[in-house]
Design brief:
The complex is a heterodimer.
Chain A (H helix, E strand, L loop, with lengths): L2 E6 L5 E2 L3 E6 L5 H10 L3 E2 L11 H16 L3 E8 L7 H11 L4 E5 H4 L2 H20 L4 E4 L4 E6 L4 H20 L3 E4 L9 H6 L4 H19 L12 H6 L4 H8 L8 E5 L10 E5 L5 H11 L3 E5 L13 E5 L2 H6 L6 E2 L10 H16 L5 H5 L14
Parallel strand pairs in A: 3-4, 3-5, 5-6, 8-9, 8-12, 9-11, 10-11, 12-13, 13-14
Antiparallel strand pairs in A: 1-2, 1-7
Helix pairs in contact in A: 1-5, 2-3, 2-11, 6-10, 6-13
Chain B lengths: L3 E2 L7 E4 L8 E6 L2 E6 L9 E3 L8 E4 L2 E6 L8 E2 L4 E2 L5 H4 L1
Antiparallel strand pairs in B: 1-2, 2-5, 3-4, 5-8, 6-7, 7-9
The chains are: A alpha/beta, B mainly beta.
């Protein structure tokens, strides 16, 4: 499968889903967007716990995720809903979205619309019209080079490093060879392995940036007197057999395969297509790391788990795999792909990597992932500081 | 029967790929050869065991890299985990 069928967007990007986003500009608009989305088949939303009372750098992270979500090519168009008095003001949110995309955009401010019911009515009308326009789009055939894939691991155990992450790495190398883009994330899980990634940097600048983002992350936690090792590895990681953060990291970075690292992006910044392997600076916390890559514009996320996780995302399909044969048997309702045959010598890495790429392409072509079928949409936005 | 694996020939720990009881034979492949030893303790599936004696203060090596330091002497065949290994931050930029 060397092509997929997707939706061409007016900004030139290509989506693999065709949804309308009801975007809450802050926590104070999130219940309203939930009600709106429940009235509009074909729309999605999420619970934005941020958007107000944040320090500058935190507000920037929130703005980048919101703008990136609206710009993600899986989204046809966006209805932004704000309360009216939050720090993430409507005009700021709209400007941030417009910097990234020229796709359809509508706005509803609850305090100006005259309260909840009037705001809901206005937003539902905008969203229904947008869904109708979106439904007219025909899919077109595109090469795999148009794909940007986000890679993530969560609830890791030693099988993640032995099988699931190497299989993701093999898939990533195949995608890179086809001219596509793969994002390696989770800066906390580079710790103890950053020198290995840095050796693969395409330029001196990328090499230095890899060390910079790791040290910046460690120092950010030290500013509040904490260490990144607090709670990492997690109790589940340890029960599974992971002893130290270094061991977890050495397993984690297998997701990047063996390709050179061509760029390092800050959290939720827009990723250019046709870039090969790139890194994004994200937390090890899964929902906030996945959110950043989705904001970066990936169309599909591939997610490994040793312990088994149900996680999904409102905007991109999340393909899940495990290298743990017991977890696959126990959580088959949640997990799409079994990588454990690698450990037991039943299948080799090249075969499993191609099988996983085929599953990613099928997903891009429209096949539902298990997380989509179950309706999982949880997400989080990274932050560095308490509310002001 | 192969019931464990190593990732890199430099490793001094193997990963159990089946549950292993104390006293059972542990077998893993290294460069095409089967290496066997006796489990000194029960090893939960996917947990680590020492493939040779690791002295207190010595690095524990998996993936051919340091994953921590032995807090006490670890016998060949013994379970290697949080009770006998601690994390140590290395300056990898300087090392590189």
């Amino acid at each position: 499968m060397n092509t997929f069928y997707g939706y061409r967007r007016p900004d030139g990007r290509v989506g693999v889903r065709n949804r309308v986003l009801i975007l809450p500009a802050s926590v104070c608009a999130s219940d309203t967007t939930r009600i709106i989305a429940s009235q509009v088949e074909g729309s999605v939303t999420f619970n934005n716990q941020q958007g107000c009372s944040q320090v500058g750098p935190d507000q920037q992270l929130t703005m980048d995720v919101m703008a990136g979500y609206a710009a993600n090519p899986n989204i046809y168009g966006t209805v932004v809903v704000s309360l009216g008095c939050e720090n993430c003001q409507m005009d700021l949110v709209v400007a941030a979205i417009r910097e990234r995309t020229n796709k359809p955009l509508e706005q509803v401010i609850i305090q100006e619309a005259g309260g909840t019911l009037k705001a809901i009515e206005a937003a539902v009308r905008y969203a229904k019209a947008m869904v109708a326009e979106a439904s007219m789009l025909q899919k077109e055939e595109f090469p795999l080079s148009e794909l940007i894939i986000g890679t993530e691991c969560g609830g890791s155990d030693p099988t993640s490093g032995l099988a699931a992450n190497p299989v993701i790495g093999e898939m990533s190398d195949l995608l890179v060879k086809a001219g596509g883009t793969s994002i390696l994330s989770e800066t906390t899980e580079f710790i103890g392995a950053e020198h290995i990634l840095a050796r693969r940097a395409a330029t001196k600048e990328v090499h230095d940036r890899i060390f910079e983002i790791v040290h910046r992350y460690e120092n950010a936690l030290r500013l509040v007197g904490e260490e990144v090792r607090e709670g990492n590895p997690s109790p589940g990681n340890k029960a599974g057999g992971i002893t130290t953060l270094e061991e977890k990291s050495l397993g984690c970075i297998h997701k990047g395969g063996h390709s050179p690292v061509n760029a390092v992006y800050d959290y939720a910044k827009q990723v250019e297509p046709h870039q090969g392997l790139v890194i994004m600076d994200t937390p090890g916390n899964d929902p906030s790391s996945v959110a950043a890559m989705v904001a970066g514009g990936c169309q599909v996320v591939v997610f490994s788990s040793g312990r088994g996780t149900p996680t999904g995302n409102p905007i991109v399909p999340v393909v899940k795999l495990t290298g743990n044969k017991l977890t696959y048997a126990k959580m088959v309702d949640n997990i799409d792909f079994d990588a454990s045959p690698l450990i037991y010598g039943q299948k080799d890495l090249a075969t499993l990597g191609q099988d996983l790429l085929d599953m990613v392409v099928e997903t891009a072509r429209g096949k539902q992932t298990k997380a989509e079928a179950l309706g999982y949409t949880e997400m989080a936005i990274a932050r560095v500081c308490n509310y002001v | 029967m192969i019931n464990a694996m190593i990732i890199d020939p430099k490793d001094n720990v193997a990963v159990a790929i089946e549950p292993i009881a104390a006293g059972e034979t542990v077998s893993y492949l290294c460069g095409g050869e089967t290496v066997s030893l006796t489990a000194a303790s029960d090893i939960t599936i996917y947990h680590k065991l020492a493939t040779r004696e690791i002295k207190a203060g010595e690095p524990v090596v998996k993936y051919g890299e340091h994953i921590g330091v032995a807090m006490c002497d670890i016998a060949r065949g013994a379970h290697v985990h949080v009770h006998n290994v601690e994390s140590r931050r290395e300056d990898l930029e300087a090392k590189e």
